[in-house]
Amino acid sequence: RYRDAHILAEHLRELIAGHLFPHGAPVTASIGVAEHNSREDVQSWFSRLDAALFVAKNGGRNRVVTDPRGNSDTWAVDPAPVMSLV
Description:
By secondary structure, the chain is mainly alpha-helical. Helices cover 47% and strands 9% of the residues. A two-stranded parallel ribbon has the order 1-2. It is elongated. The two termini are 27 Å apart.
């Protein structure tokens, strides 16, 4: 789920920013997150991911930006199983 991925990415960003690297200079990370939508091809998915990363970098860096389009919101509204055997 993209919300969980966002939380994980934010935690990773904080760990990187708080770590003292041997060279002494601060290190930050800009991270883009995008959940795959079952109706899209891989290229479209990575394009959304790249766009989120671009926004993170151009929005001041050291941030996480998440594209909210994905399947998990649909699954949360419609609890029907994704797959079923008949």
